[in-house]
Design goal:
Number of strands: 12
Oligomer: single chain
Radius of gyration: 28 Å
């Protein structure tokens, strides 16, 4: 009799649990699952996944981890619980334990290709790309037809600068699985990075279709917002992409299951005898040797301490550079929170009673936007890091200017627009690059193999910002001004041969295209003065680079479109006081204005 009872009980408890789960009575469901498991460990495997997903849905990540650990004691030889536990650890940001779990999976089954890919993904997320590549390659050896392994190998190659290998692996993944949005979109981006423009229009049409389908199905789009800002996409579609990524950050935030924060009461702006200061927090992963700090370095210490108390929260470790040390010493409060979990950082910000919290990352590398999704501060603002809309309902304002984000385009932003007078794009060059103004320290053209007697057009932007339409214009300009050259950067080197071939195919003389290596910041700014005219890229402008070249005294031609990233250079030009000489509003005028500036300079 007891044998029969032991056999029936787990299934009764299990199906009762399922019923409770469907009714949303989660605590009762968990109770019955526990009874089911207690009475028969053989019943375990079928329900392990369900319990884990149940606990995860309930944002009980820690409980899920404890639960899986308990199941491990009764499931010797089964790798499923280790896989599940690893997923939970990754959700917690606990990568070391996740890797240990995958090691266990691979000890139980050394030929588990899935386990290898999962461990590779974890290595990749923490920047251990070499180990990730090894895992993917081994997975491919075991299962050559596993499209996901090829695609992830491609991404790891791309991250480590092996562009050609990345393209080959993406193409292999798509041969094995033609309907693979992630691989299609990542391949397109890799091709853009090296100016490989065959089938470009066809691929963009395909990718736009993929994004629209994903948005309709509420799937996270396979094109990241940071890539979308440089693509010729409809601005409203770019907004939708950002919205989906913002919602994903909210989902990550919800897993921490924090109760809502209380916010400090607002303080009056101007009041007699006011002794309260406004508490402003800056969150960034780029306090260090990064364009953001090159531009904003002085700002944190320049706030008037009588009115404003500044807190900087660094999401990255100290890189030991002058940029990091400077902000650490000049900001009133500087906190390295790089080792803390996102919920702990949000709690800290809230404990500091921050009234305005500034997001200096947006959708850039190192961001932890889930902190903002937890709403630790009453007013949250996006500034400088991401030149586009965040699409986030938890970001109230975008700090911009009237040229970059005119009110007639306010519908392509989710935030309320705050217009700074002049140009929103701050720079620190008066403090850090005054030597550029000293005529004695200039470089010579011969230092870089540049011709002394020719007119030098230049574009120092990353190559992904270029597209066939603007490059065709440049080719036409070079043909029209035979005594001229175009100076570009190996940014990356893999793009050089393709652009040279493209130019020659359009009738440009090979010696009219000159590539040099990327230089260190100071040298890069100073040598910019060797050129005669900077040609900007309309789809995504020179932002930091635009500031660099204007400071060096090099004029530019720019063509603003609608999206924020297409208008920043125009705003920089307006700030010089010579905007009308450098800004054009149509491609044909871009060509004409370039020629007339060239002639004016030449005569």
């Amino acid at each position: 009799g007891t044998g029969m009872a032991n056999y029936i009980l787990p299934y009764v408890s299990g199906s009762l649990a399922s019923t409770y789960y469907e009714q949303g009575q989660l605590d009762l469901a968990i109770l019955h699952y526990k009874q089911a498991l207690a009475s028969d460990s053989g019943f375990l495997e079928a329900y392990i996944k369900l319990v884990g997903s149940l606990l995860s849905c309930m944002n009980m990540v820690a409980a899920a981890a404890t639960y899986y650990k308990a199941t491990l004691t009764v499931t010797t030889g089964l790798s499923a619980p280790f896989n599940n536990l690893a997923i939970v650890y990754k959700q917690q940001g606990n990568y070391a334990d996740a890797i240990s779990c995958y090691n266990e999976v691979l000890r139980i089954d050394p030929l588990a290709a899935d386990g290898l890919v999962n461990r590779g993904n974890t290595y990749k997320e923490i920047g251990r790309v070499t180990e990730a590549i090894q895992d993917y390659m081994y997975a491919i050896t075991i299962r050559p037809t596993m499209a996901e392994a090829h695609a992830n190998l491609a991404s790891a190659y791309k991250d480590s600068g092996h562009v050609e290998a990345a393209m080959k692996s993406y193409k292999q993944a798509l041969l094995l699985r033609p309907d693979f949005p992630e691989a299609t979109c990542n391949l397109l981006h890799t091709l853009q990075c090296v100016c490989s423009w065959e089938d470009r229009d066809k691929m963009f049409t395909e990718v736009e279709g993929i994004i629209r389908r994903q948005i309709k199905m509420s799937v996270l789009p396979s094109v990241q917002p940071f890539h979308a800002i440089a693509y010729p996409l409809d601005p409203m579609l770019a907004l939708e992409i950002s919205r989906k990524y913002a919602a994903h950050c909210s989902l990550i935030a919800s897993r921490y299951a924090l109760p809502p924060f209380n916010h400090p009461t607002p303080i009056p702006i101007k009041s007699e005898g006011r002794n309260q200061r406004l508490r402003v927090g800056y969150v960034s992963s780029d306090f260090g040797n990064h364009p953001l700090s090159h531009l904003m370095g002085s700002v944190f210490g320049m706030h008037n301490r009588q009115n404003v108390e500044v807190f900087c929260y660094a999401l990255s470790q100290n890189d030991g550079t002058e940029w990091r040390l400077r902000t650490q010493s000049e900001a009133e409060h500087f906190l390295d929170v790089s080792a803390m979990s996102s919920d702990m950082i949000a709690k800290l910000i809230n404990e500091h009673k921050i009234q305005i919290l500034v997001n200096l990352n947006g959708y850039t590398k190192g961001a932890r936007n889930e902190i903002f999704a937890m709403l630790p501060a009453p007013i949250q603002v996006s500034y400088m890091g991401f030149p586009g809309t965040t699409g986030a309902d938890y970001i109230d304002y975008l700090v911009t200017d009237e040229f970059v984000s005119p009110l007639c385009f306010s519908h392509i932003y989710s935030e309320k627009l705050v217009h700074l007078p002049h140009c929103y794009f701050v720079n620190d060059y008066k403090q850090k690059n005054l030597d550029v103004l000293d005529p004695n320290c200039w470089h010579k053209r011969s230092d870089y193999g540049l011709p002394e007697d020719k007119f030098i057009f230049a574009c120092f932007n990353q190559l992904y910002k270029m597209d066939p339409e603007i490059f065709d214009s440049w080719c036409n300009i070079l043909k029209r001004v035979p005594n001229s050259v175009l100076w570009l950067l190996r940014f990356p080197a893999a793009g050089e041969m393709r652009l040279r071939a493209y130019a020659v195919a359009r009738g440009v003389q090979p010696e009219q295209i000159i590539f040099t290596d990327v230089a260190m910041k100071n040298e890069h700014i100073r040598r910019s003065a060797l050129a005669d005219l900077f040609l900007d890229t309309p789809l995504c402008n020179a932002h930091t680079t635009g500031t660099d070249i204007l400071w060096a005294g090099l004029p530019m031609v720019t063509l603003p479109l609608e999206k924020m990233a297409t208008r920043v250079a125009g705003s920089l030009c307006v700030a010089t006081g010579l905007g009308e000489d450098m800004i054009v509003n149509r491609y044909v005028l871009y060509f004409n204005e370039t020629l007339s500036l060239c002639l004016a300079n030449w005569l």
